[in-house]
Amino acid sequence: MLYDQLKRLKSGSDIRGIAVEGASRITLTDEAIRDITRAFGIWLRYRIGKARVRIALGNDSRISGPHIKQIVTDTLTASGIDVLYTGLSSTPSMFLLLQDEAMGCEGSIMITASHLPYDRNGLKFFTKDGGLEFTDIDDIVRLASDDFEHPCFPAPLNEGMYDEGSFMDQYSAILVKSVEDACGKEPLKGSKIIVDAGNGAGGFFTEKVLKPLGADTEGSMYLNPDGMFPNHVPNPEDKKAIDGLSKQVVEVGADLGIIFDTDVDRSACVDKSGMEINRNALIALLSAILLADKPGAIVTDSVTSTHLTDFIEAHGGTHIRYKRGYRNVIDKCKELNAAGTYSPLAIETSGHAAFMDNYFLDDGAYVITRILICKSKMNQMGLHLADLIKDLKRPVEEDEVRISFVPECTDFRTEGQHIIQDLMGKGLEGGVMEDVNYEGVRYNFASDIMGWLLIRNSVHDPVMPINFESDIAGGNKKMAKVLLDALRPYDSLDLTKLEEFTG
Fold first, then answer.
1. Where are the alpha helices (DSSP H) in 79-167?
2. How many CB atoms neighbour CB 50 within 10 A?
3. d(CA 256, CA 385)
4. CA distance 357 to 500
5. Which of 263, 305, 315, 394 has the fewest CB atoms in 10 Å of its CB?
6. How many degrees, rounded to 5, is the angle at CA 69 between CA 66 and CA 72?
7. pLDDT tens, residue by residue, 431-473
8. Can you give the pTM of this predicted structure?
9. How far apart are CA 398 and CA 385, in angstroms?
């Protein structure tokens, strides 16, 4: 396929597209899967300097998974690459198996599109060093394209071997051991903890992690894999999903509720009162746990609350508000540590959380194990998780409005950056621009608003997301009206949604 066609499938450091026929045409075609898979094999052999390699392959519960698995398997083995198929797997397990010498794999591919609808799917790639970077995906897409001359590299003379063997038992045992090492055997005995797996790959957590730790998991929901996701969007940020878990926790009298996305690289939870610990609250909880051991820098994406900054600083930490995109926050966190600044956590408000002590791998199940360790220790003191974040101030209003570029605007990234630079120069009435800001432009408002807004370019789409937060009812609309007036001169923007928001 041509490079221009393939690069449309890039989604940060992943490959994603429409994989099931429906309202939209298929973009993640069989041809694209073959070309990109073959290119990853070439790239990996060059990366490690071996002609013969073994690649692990897993998938979540999506209905297109088996079809894509067969294409990837056939492509790799025809290229002389050995394949270990691990079946239904979590994305983090596909990296951790590379650290197990007994598995004998140099790379891995996870077939998933995270929380996206059932008709989407994609490919995530790993080496023993971690998930691929943006630049690595660029290289692979170029290698996959027809207009790129493939380098000469001797491939094995024989077809690759195919084998099957799950890693989920070993992965689960790693999680159990981390809790037991900190808290002893069966530290959750007497606790009722339920899971909402959203019909994705996270159902294993009840049988293979919580029960061995002694927890009662009766009342857990949607544990069976179903790639149509019939109950709710498999996304810890989804309001229906988190509200449903909150209701279930209260109804069954659980001490904690846990929710995963489809491939278990993100998670959130609900405390015994039904209060969600998600987004800023989740970041605050993890920050409090880590900063109690050692002061350091917590790296987040750009849309976190000003109140979160206050909370982190009050706990002896430094808050680095960086860019959206989980690879961005992870790379920034690694950069800080390399420069001598202790930074134990990189986390997005979406729930992608990567710990320094866990290979900087965004692993939703590992997030929960850290919370379980904390919960077990607090239980012994007669305290609850919510006590750790009782000082986190919560805004009265939180909103996001996404305004689009008009179809005639073909270079939306450049135009969006031009608009942001203009706003930095002209300012906003009543607002004070944030001095240290890595993405878009952020203005703080005092007096009768007590809030902030951030406008930025989307990481992938031709839109400009705007986030608002206010401590006063009606404050977000007031800020939106100020911004609307400032944006009216730009014919490149469709301001309909912002107009509707302001009323």
1. 91-96, 134-144
2. 12
3. 9
4. 46
5. 394
6. 155
7. 999 999 999 999 999 978 899 999 999 877 899 999 999 999 9
8. 0.94
9. 23
